[in-house]
Design brief:
This protein folds into 2 domains: 3-65, no CATH class; 101-303, Uracil-DNA glycosylase-like domain (Uracil-DNA Glycosylase, subunit E). α3 (78-90) runs antiparallel to α7 (205-221), α6 packs across α10 and α7 packs across α8 (233-245). The chain is built from 10 helices and 8 strands. Strands 3-5-4-6-8-7 form a 6-stranded mixed beta sheet. A two-stranded antiparallel ribbon has the order 1-2. It has 306 residues and is of the alpha/beta class. The chain is globular, with a radius of gyration of 28 Å. The N and C termini lie far apart (61 Å). A hairpin with a 2-residue loop joins β1 (3-4) and β2.
Protein backbone atom coordinates (compact mmCIF):
# COMPACT_ATOMS: atom_id res chain seq x y z
CA UNK A 1 0.00 0.00 0.00
CA UNK A 2 1.45 3.33 -1.08
CA UNK A 3 1.46 6.01 1.62
CA UNK A 4 3.07 9.42 0.92
CA UNK A 5 3.28 12.04 3.64
CA UNK A 6 0.26 10.60 5.47
CA UNK A 7 -1.97 10.13 2.39
CA UNK A 8 -3.29 6.63 1.65
CA UNK A 9 -3.78 6.80 -2.12
CA UNK A 10 -5.55 3.40 -2.28
CA UNK A 11 -8.42 4.75 -0.15
CA UNK A 12 -8.30 8.16 -1.81
CA UNK A 13 -8.95 6.60 -5.23
CA UNK A 14 -12.31 5.22 -3.97
CA UNK A 15 -13.57 8.59 -2.74
CA UNK A 16 -11.95 11.33 -4.90
CA UNK A 17 -12.29 12.14 -8.62
CA UNK A 18 -9.27 11.42 -10.83
CA UNK A 19 -8.42 15.12 -11.27
CA UNK A 20 -8.47 15.70 -7.51
CA UNK A 21 -6.24 12.70 -6.95
CA UNK A 22 -3.79 13.99 -9.58
CA UNK A 23 -3.72 17.43 -7.93
CA UNK A 24 -3.21 15.87 -4.52
CA UNK A 25 -0.33 13.75 -5.84
CA UNK A 26 1.37 16.80 -7.38
CA UNK A 27 1.02 18.79 -4.17
CA UNK A 28 2.39 15.86 -2.15
CA UNK A 29 5.35 15.49 -4.53
CA UNK A 30 6.10 19.20 -4.26
CA UNK A 31 6.06 19.00 -0.46
CA UNK A 32 8.32 15.91 -0.65
CA UNK A 33 10.81 17.73 -2.95
CA UNK A 34 10.88 20.77 -0.65
CA UNK A 35 11.49 18.49 2.34
CA UNK A 36 14.32 16.75 0.47
CA UNK A 37 15.91 20.10 -0.45
CA UNK A 38 15.75 21.26 3.16
CA UNK A 39 17.42 18.01 4.27
CA UNK A 40 20.24 18.41 1.72
CA UNK A 41 20.79 22.05 2.69
CA UNK A 42 20.93 21.10 6.36
CA UNK A 43 23.50 18.40 5.63
CA UNK A 44 25.67 20.78 3.61
CA UNK A 45 25.42 23.45 6.30
CA UNK A 46 26.42 20.95 9.00
CA UNK A 47 29.40 19.79 6.95
CA UNK A 48 30.53 23.39 6.39
CA UNK A 49 30.18 24.16 10.10
CA UNK A 50 32.23 21.08 11.00
CA UNK A 51 34.95 22.02 8.51
CA UNK A 52 35.05 25.59 9.88
CA UNK A 53 35.34 24.25 13.44
CA UNK A 54 38.18 21.86 12.53
CA UNK A 55 40.07 24.55 10.65
CA UNK A 56 39.74 27.14 13.43
CA UNK A 57 40.71 24.58 16.07
CA UNK A 58 43.73 23.46 14.08
CA UNK A 59 44.79 27.09 13.60
CA UNK A 60 44.66 27.72 17.34
CA UNK A 61 46.62 24.52 17.93
CA UNK A 62 49.22 25.56 15.36
CA UNK A 63 49.73 28.92 17.05
CA UNK A 64 50.45 27.17 20.35
CA UNK A 65 52.55 24.30 19.02
CA UNK A 66 54.27 25.80 15.94
CA UNK A 67 52.60 23.15 13.80
CA UNK A 68 51.02 23.87 10.38
CA UNK A 69 47.38 24.95 10.66
CA UNK A 70 46.20 22.02 8.52
CA UNK A 71 47.58 19.41 10.99
CA UNK A 72 44.20 17.95 11.98
CA UNK A 73 43.06 17.52 8.38
CA UNK A 74 46.08 15.44 7.27
CA UNK A 75 45.58 12.03 8.75
CA UNK A 76 43.87 9.55 6.50
CA UNK A 77 46.06 8.68 3.50
CA UNK A 78 49.84 9.19 3.30
CA UNK A 79 49.99 9.90 -0.43
CA UNK A 80 47.25 12.54 -0.35
CA UNK A 81 48.60 14.01 2.87
CA UNK A 82 52.12 14.42 1.48
CA UNK A 83 50.70 15.94 -1.69
CA UNK A 84 48.80 18.54 0.35
CA UNK A 85 51.90 19.19 2.44
CA UNK A 86 54.06 19.63 -0.68
CA UNK A 87 51.60 22.18 -2.07
CA UNK A 88 51.69 24.05 1.22
CA UNK A 89 55.50 24.08 1.22
CA UNK A 90 55.78 25.41 -2.33
CA UNK A 91 53.56 28.39 -1.42
CA UNK A 92 55.54 29.31 1.69
CA UNK A 93 56.83 32.89 2.01
CA UNK A 94 57.69 32.96 5.70
CA UNK A 95 61.28 34.12 5.34
CA UNK A 96 61.71 37.40 3.38
CA UNK A 97 65.48 36.96 2.97
CA UNK A 98 65.08 33.49 1.46
CA UNK A 99 62.18 34.54 -0.76
CA UNK A 100 64.19 37.46 -2.16
CA UNK A 101 67.27 35.29 -2.78
CA UNK A 102 65.55 32.34 -4.43
CA UNK A 103 63.54 34.63 -6.73
CA UNK A 104 66.56 36.74 -7.66
CA UNK A 105 68.49 33.60 -8.62
CA UNK A 106 65.53 32.42 -10.68
CA UNK A 107 65.51 35.72 -12.59
CA UNK A 108 69.22 36.15 -13.21
CA UNK A 109 70.05 32.43 -13.76
CA UNK A 110 73.43 30.94 -14.53
CA UNK A 111 74.66 31.23 -18.11
CA UNK A 112 74.64 27.49 -18.74
CA UNK A 113 70.98 27.31 -17.64
CA UNK A 114 69.75 30.39 -19.47
CA UNK A 115 67.09 28.38 -21.35
CA UNK A 116 65.65 26.98 -18.13
CA UNK A 117 62.56 28.29 -16.39
CA UNK A 118 63.78 28.15 -12.81
CA UNK A 119 61.53 26.69 -10.12
CA UNK A 120 62.33 29.62 -7.80
CA UNK A 121 60.12 28.38 -4.94
CA UNK A 122 60.54 26.26 -1.81
CA UNK A 123 61.48 22.67 -2.69
CA UNK A 124 59.29 19.95 -1.12
CA UNK A 125 60.43 16.49 -0.14
CA UNK A 126 60.46 13.68 -2.68
CA UNK A 127 60.01 9.94 -2.54
CA UNK A 128 57.96 6.96 -1.44
CA UNK A 129 55.15 7.75 1.06
CA UNK A 130 55.71 4.29 2.56
CA UNK A 131 59.47 4.83 2.91
CA UNK A 132 61.49 3.19 5.66
CA UNK A 133 64.62 5.21 4.76
CA UNK A 134 64.55 8.96 5.37
CA UNK A 135 67.45 11.00 3.92
CA UNK A 136 67.78 14.58 5.15
CA UNK A 137 70.13 17.30 3.91
CA UNK A 138 70.63 20.99 4.55
CA UNK A 139 68.94 23.05 1.81
CA UNK A 140 68.43 23.21 -1.99
CA UNK A 141 71.29 24.51 -4.11
CA UNK A 142 70.75 27.84 -5.86
CA UNK A 143 71.15 26.33 -9.33
CA UNK A 144 70.19 22.78 -8.32
CA UNK A 145 66.90 22.27 -6.49
CA UNK A 146 66.02 25.95 -6.85
CA UNK A 147 66.26 25.46 -10.61
CA UNK A 148 64.74 22.00 -11.03
CA UNK A 149 62.18 21.93 -8.22
CA UNK A 150 63.35 18.58 -6.89
CA UNK A 151 65.53 18.12 -3.84
CA UNK A 152 69.17 17.14 -4.60
CA UNK A 153 68.56 17.48 -8.34
CA UNK A 154 70.67 19.35 -10.87
CA UNK A 155 73.99 19.50 -8.96
CA UNK A 156 76.94 17.25 -8.17
CA UNK A 157 75.68 16.39 -4.69
CA UNK A 158 72.57 14.93 -6.28
CA UNK A 159 74.70 12.97 -8.76
CA UNK A 160 76.40 11.24 -5.84
CA UNK A 161 73.19 10.67 -3.88
CA UNK A 162 71.03 9.20 -6.61
CA UNK A 163 73.84 6.99 -7.91
CA UNK A 164 74.16 5.50 -4.42
CA UNK A 165 70.40 5.09 -4.03
CA UNK A 166 70.23 3.30 -7.39
CA UNK A 167 73.14 1.03 -6.47
CA UNK A 168 71.36 -0.12 -3.31
CA UNK A 169 67.94 -0.43 -4.94
CA UNK A 170 66.24 2.64 -3.50
CA UNK A 171 65.86 4.29 -6.94
CA UNK A 172 64.94 3.11 -10.43
CA UNK A 173 67.72 5.10 -12.15
CA UNK A 174 71.13 6.49 -11.13
CA UNK A 175 70.57 10.13 -12.07
CA UNK A 176 68.13 12.96 -11.39
CA UNK A 177 67.94 15.76 -13.95
CA UNK A 178 64.50 17.35 -13.57
CA UNK A 179 61.02 16.70 -12.20
CA UNK A 180 59.82 14.90 -15.31
CA UNK A 181 62.77 12.56 -15.87
CA UNK A 182 61.00 9.38 -14.73
CA UNK A 183 62.91 8.97 -11.47
CA UNK A 184 61.08 7.00 -8.79
CA UNK A 185 62.24 6.20 -5.29
CA UNK A 186 61.32 2.97 -3.56
CA UNK A 187 61.33 2.68 0.23
CA UNK A 188 63.13 6.04 0.44
CA UNK A 189 62.14 9.66 1.00
CA UNK A 190 64.44 12.70 0.73
CA UNK A 191 63.96 16.09 2.40
CA UNK A 192 65.91 19.12 3.54
CA UNK A 193 66.04 20.98 6.83
CA UNK A 194 65.47 24.30 4.99
CA UNK A 195 63.33 24.36 1.83
CA UNK A 196 64.67 27.47 0.08
CA UNK A 197 68.15 28.05 -1.34
CA UNK A 198 69.88 30.31 1.24
CA UNK A 199 72.50 32.99 0.46
CA UNK A 200 75.96 31.52 0.88
CA UNK A 201 74.32 28.18 1.70
CA UNK A 202 73.93 29.46 5.29
CA UNK A 203 70.40 29.71 6.68
CA UNK A 204 69.78 31.92 9.69
CA UNK A 205 68.51 30.44 13.00
CA UNK A 206 65.03 31.89 12.48
CA UNK A 207 64.91 30.32 9.01
CA UNK A 208 65.65 26.90 10.47
CA UNK A 209 62.83 27.50 12.96
CA UNK A 210 60.40 28.55 10.23
CA UNK A 211 61.01 25.34 8.24
CA UNK A 212 61.02 22.90 11.15
CA UNK A 213 57.23 22.36 11.15
CA UNK A 214 57.53 20.90 7.64
CA UNK A 215 60.10 18.35 8.81
CA UNK A 216 57.88 17.53 11.79
CA UNK A 217 54.90 16.95 9.53
CA UNK A 218 56.85 14.74 7.11
CA UNK A 219 58.11 12.61 9.97
CA UNK A 220 54.59 12.32 11.34
CA UNK A 221 53.20 11.22 7.98
CA UNK A 222 56.08 8.85 7.11
CA UNK A 223 55.11 6.35 9.77
CA UNK A 224 57.23 3.52 8.44
CA UNK A 225 60.64 5.24 8.78
CA UNK A 226 63.21 2.96 10.44
CA UNK A 227 66.54 4.40 9.23
CA UNK A 228 67.53 8.06 8.92
CA UNK A 229 70.65 9.14 7.02
CA UNK A 230 71.65 12.70 7.90
CA UNK A 231 73.87 14.32 5.28
CA UNK A 232 76.10 16.60 7.31
CA UNK A 233 76.26 17.73 10.93
CA UNK A 234 73.65 20.47 10.52
CA UNK A 235 71.07 18.03 9.15
CA UNK A 236 72.01 15.54 11.90
CA UNK A 237 71.49 18.10 14.68
CA UNK A 238 68.28 19.51 13.23
CA UNK A 239 66.75 16.07 12.77
CA UNK A 240 67.27 15.49 16.50
CA UNK A 241 65.85 18.93 17.26
CA UNK A 242 62.71 18.09 15.26
CA UNK A 243 62.37 14.83 17.18
CA UNK A 244 62.73 16.71 20.46
CA UNK A 245 60.06 19.23 19.41
CA UNK A 246 57.70 16.37 18.56
CA UNK A 247 58.02 15.00 22.09
CA UNK A 248 60.29 12.02 21.40
CA UNK A 249 62.79 11.01 24.10
CA UNK A 250 66.00 12.30 22.47
CA UNK A 251 69.09 10.91 24.27
CA UNK A 252 70.88 13.14 26.75
CA UNK A 253 73.71 14.04 26.71
CA UNK A 254 73.37 14.78 23.01
CA UNK A 255 74.71 12.18 20.60
CA UNK A 256 77.54 13.37 18.34
CA UNK A 257 77.73 13.51 14.56
CA UNK A 258 80.41 11.55 12.75
CA UNK A 259 80.67 9.92 9.35
CA UNK A 260 79.42 6.38 9.79
CA UNK A 261 78.33 6.98 13.38
CA UNK A 262 75.08 5.08 13.97
CA UNK A 263 72.71 5.33 16.91
CA UNK A 264 69.70 3.23 17.82
CA UNK A 265 67.17 5.76 19.05
CA UNK A 266 64.56 4.91 21.71
CA UNK A 267 61.64 5.11 19.26
CA UNK A 268 63.05 2.37 17.01
CA UNK A 269 64.89 4.46 14.41
CA UNK A 270 68.56 4.03 13.48
CA UNK A 271 70.22 7.41 12.87
CA UNK A 272 73.35 7.31 10.67
CA UNK A 273 75.66 10.28 10.18
CA UNK A 274 77.22 10.89 6.77
CA UNK A 275 79.44 13.61 5.37
CA UNK A 276 77.53 15.76 2.92
CA UNK A 277 78.43 14.94 -0.72
CA UNK A 278 79.30 18.58 -1.41
CA UNK A 279 82.04 19.42 -3.91
CA UNK A 280 84.16 20.67 -1.04
CA UNK A 281 84.05 17.22 0.57
CA UNK A 282 84.26 15.11 -2.58
CA UNK A 283 86.94 17.12 -4.41
CA UNK A 284 89.23 17.14 -1.36
CA UNK A 285 88.79 13.42 -0.69
CA UNK A 286 87.17 13.94 2.69
CA UNK A 287 84.32 11.88 1.28
CA UNK A 288 85.01 9.10 -1.23
CA UNK A 289 82.59 6.93 -3.19
CA UNK A 290 83.50 3.95 -1.06
CA UNK A 291 82.76 5.88 2.14
CA UNK A 292 79.47 7.14 0.75
CA UNK A 293 78.37 3.73 -0.51
CA UNK A 294 79.14 2.21 2.89
CA UNK A 295 76.44 4.40 4.45
CA UNK A 296 73.72 3.20 2.11
CA UNK A 297 74.95 -0.37 2.20
CA UNK A 298 74.42 -0.25 5.94
CA UNK A 299 70.99 1.30 5.53
CA UNK A 300 70.00 -1.47 3.10
CA UNK A 301 71.36 -4.14 5.44
CA UNK A 302 69.38 -2.71 8.37
CA UNK A 303 66.16 -2.60 6.37
CA UNK A 304 66.58 -5.76 4.32
CA UNK A 305 64.30 -6.17 1.31
CA UNK A 306 60.59 -5.46 1.30
Amino acid sequence: MAVELGIDWAKAEDTLPAKAISAQRQASAARWNRSDEVSVCATVWSAMSLFRYIFNTSRKFSQRQETPAFWFMLDWHPMKNLTVLHERITRCRRCPRLVAHREAIARTKRRQFRQWTYWGRPVPGFGDPKARLFVIGLAPAAHGGNRTGRVFTGDRSGDWLYEALYRFEFANQPHSAHRGDGLRLSDCYIAAVVRCAPPGNKPLPEEFDACRPYVLEELRLLRGVRVVVALGKIAFDHYLRACLDSGLPVPSPAIQFGHGAAYQLPWGVTLIGCYHPSQQNTFTGKLTRRMFHAIFRRARKNLGRR
